[in-house]
Amino acid sequence: MLEKFAYYCLVYPLSLLPLRVLYLMTDLFFLLLITVFPYRKKVIDKNLKLSFPELSDHERKKIKRKFYRHFTDILAEGIKNLSFSKKQYSRRVTVKNNSLMERLYSEGRNVLLVSGHYNNWEWIITAQDMIFRHKAFGIGKRMTSKFWDQKVNQRRNRFGMTVIHRLNQKQILEDYTEKPHAVLLLSDQSPTDPLKCYWTQFLNQETAVIFGTELLANQKDYAVVFFATKKVKRGHYELELELITENASDTKWGEITEAHTKLLEKVIRKSPEYWLWSHKRWKRVIPDNFEELKSKQEKRFNEKFNK
Question: Model's pTM, two decimal places?
Answer without folding.
Answer: 0.94
